[in-house]
Write a structure and sequence with these properties.
single chain, 594 residues, alpha/beta, 24 helices
Length: 594
């Protein structure tokens, strides 16, 4: 995200249009003064597509509000809870008098703090299901023991790190809770620009505007990931982006890439792109060039880290890049708002920004290629709360999707096309091996998602272990490859009625009838459980219009509508005939009927 001065942020907020943005409620518990963070939270929320309402707890009142309760701050409407617990405020001994403490005194003080933190976390979770973002303790830049601190295992820095590790472990055991490493923010900004010692002494406000901006950027990496606002695909230019120079003019041996300057800047930039690939980010190429020239670089240049196998889609031609980005979107079956376009050309990025505003832009400064890697990694557009096996294989999956689309061109009958894919569906109950993937699907899936409810791993785990819930997954494979876990259905039981809380499918497999087969199996399963009726819900969003009539198409009867079709309910009477599965699947393996 672009960093701006506070005055620029205030001006943008004054002119911002917050209508039609998703609302999020952010509450803040703190033992320091952090009110100056408010404009940064509002601005970065706006940039992420949110209209945020902020509530501050009382100064240095974390324990009372968490354990004793404060309905205004912690309630069912709270979406995000930020916790700022400054170590100096709760332990002068560990922060300023460490050199005086014995090992026993250090251990005793750390045990006290751990219990204090545990009570606060437990108190918070009794009041709200909000996402908790707990900011870690700062590591001192000048330890009490000086350079000796680094030479011993029980030094001040080591002890504070152990407290942070305790917080991480405690939050991992807690639903939808994460530690935000404030020391990463410190390292990016630098201590001299991170702390305001004067305002700390005057008003217990330790952080500068630069620090609060960086902390907010870090917080929104988590918030965007939870709310499904992270990106799936990076689209890259080639000349002066992946390598220095213009391949059409400089030739294969003339472009700059390698382990020596100036080619090293592009070499490490490519490594960062491969890091994204290994995290499951789709890579596409959009270049105005001769295709043979570009492919020769990928195939034959000895210092190219990126290879053709990493690229899910190539658009190498002389068409305008707006057209080519739309082609990539269609070929990969992903939304334009899932894409980040990276180019060194000011003309090209301005064109995309103007014509395709839903595409995020990263403009690389052509005169500073050494900054490319850090620019790409700093935005956090691709951050996720988990990385699953499906993520690691996603690049290959999308290459297979391109092959499927090419096959479709030669076939005019869709049933013939689907039959030719030789699709195999596997439906089963979620277990410990795929909880992470299911949580991720709820966080990232927008188009084929009936309710768009977002769940953490802890949420899914709690449902799996609760007899009132069933969490079911769908895997799909065909003759082009294994797509992995691509769908989930979460069912809540209320006596002899079942409610489909969540029904979603990855955009990679939309339009193959998989959704109908999945729902058919769910209905069959409910009949075998002697359920009398199934309730299906649809919550309208900007992105899920295509599933508005999904239940109706599958013979559910609409029973209520609220708020201009925003909240619709449907019922399926299990005395009716069961929907038959489409006939073109090679095999449907289901364990949920057993």
């Amino acid at each position: 995200m672009k960093k701006l001065k506070l005055s620029d942020i205030q001006e943008k907020l004054n002119n911002a249009n917050f209508s039609n943005l998703e609302k999020i409620n952010i509450s803040i518990l703190r033992n320091i003064m952090v009110e100056p963070i408010e404009p940064f939270l509002k601005y970065f929320a706006y940039e992420s597509g949110f209209n945020c309402n902020i509530q501050f707890g009382d100064y240095d009142n974390i324990f009372q509000e968490a354990v004793g309760g404060k309905a205004k701050i912690l309630n069912k409407s709270t979406d995000i809870l930020l916790v700022f617990m400054y170590l100096e405020t709760i332990s002068w001994s560990l922060t300023h008098n460490y050199s005086f403490l014995s090992n026993d005194q250090v251990n005793e003080e750390m045990d006290r703090i751990k219990q204090y933190i545990s009570n606060i976390i437990n108190g918070i979770k009794k009041q709200t299901d909000a996402m908790i973002l707990w900011h870690s303790f700062d590591i001192p830049t000048n330890p009490n023991l000086g350079i000796f601190d680094s030479q011993i295992s029980k030094g001040q820095v080591s002890s504070i790190n152990k407290l942070n590790e305790f917080i991480r472990h405690k939050l991992n055991e807690t639903t939808n809770s994460y530690i935000v490493n404030i020391n990463l923010c410190l390292s990016r900004v630098g201590a001299s620009n991170f702390y305001d010692h004067r305002y700390w002494s005057i008003g217990r406000s330790p952080y500068t505007a630069s620090a609060l901006s960086e902390i907010t950027i870090e917080d929104f990496k988590y918030i965007r990931a939870l709310k499904g606002k992270n990106k799936k695909c990076i689209v890259l230019d080639c000349d002066n982006t992946l390598w220095g120079g213009i391949v059409g003019e400089d030739g294969l041996s003339g472009i700059k890439i390698g382990k020596d300057y100036p080619g090293y800047a592009f070499y490490e930039f490519q490594q960062e792109i491969i890091n994204l690939y290994n995290r499951g980010i789709i890579i596409a190429i959009c270049s105005k060039n001769n295709e043979d020239d570009v492919l020769e670089v990928f195939d034959k240049h000895p210092d190219m880290l990126l290879k053709e196998k990493h690229i899910a889609n190539f658009q190498i031609n002389w068409d305008d890049k707006v057209t080519n980005l739309k082609r990539i979107s269609n070929d990969l079956n992903i939304g334009l708002d899932s894409m980040v376009f990276v180019d060194d050309s000011e003309f090209e990025v301005n064109l995309i920004q103007s014509e395709l505003p839903e595409v995020e832009i990263i403009h690389l400064p052509i005169d500073e290629p050494t900054a490319y890697r850090n620019i790409l990694s700093s935005y956090g557009y691709f951050d996720t709360l988990t990385i699953t096996d499906e993520d690691i294989s996603r690049g290959l999956m999308y290459k297979a999707e391109s092959k499927r689309n090419k096959l479709k061109i030669d076939i005019t009958d869709m049933n013939e096309y689907f039959t030719s894919l030789e699709m195999v569906i596997r439906i089963d109950y979620v277990d410990e091996f795929n909880i992470s993937r299911i949580a991720q699907l709820t966080q990232k899936t927008n188009q084929f998602n009936l309710t768009t409810r977002r769940y953490s791993e802890s949420d899914i785990k709690n449902m799996v272990n609760n007899n009132d819930w069933d969490v079911i997954y769908l895997k799909l494979s065909d003759r082009f490859g294994d797509s992995g876990v691509v769908g989930t259905c979460i069912i809540n039981y209320d006596n002899d009625e079942s409610i489909i809380d969540t029904f979603l499918l990855s955009c990679r497999v939309i339009g193959r009838g998989v959704e109908d087969a999945f729902l058919s199996e769910i209905i069959n399963m409910q009949k075998m459980k002697k359920i009398k009726s199934i309730i299906g819900e649809y919550y309208k969003t900007k992105k899920n219009i295509q599933v508005e009539f999904f239940f109706k198409k599958n013979y559910f009867k609409e029973i209520s509508t609220k708020g201009s079709n925003a909240n619709r309910k449907f019922i399926f009477d299990l005395n009716n005939d069961i929907i038959e599965n489409p006939s073109y699947f090679k095999k449907i393996e289901s364990s949920i009927r057993k």
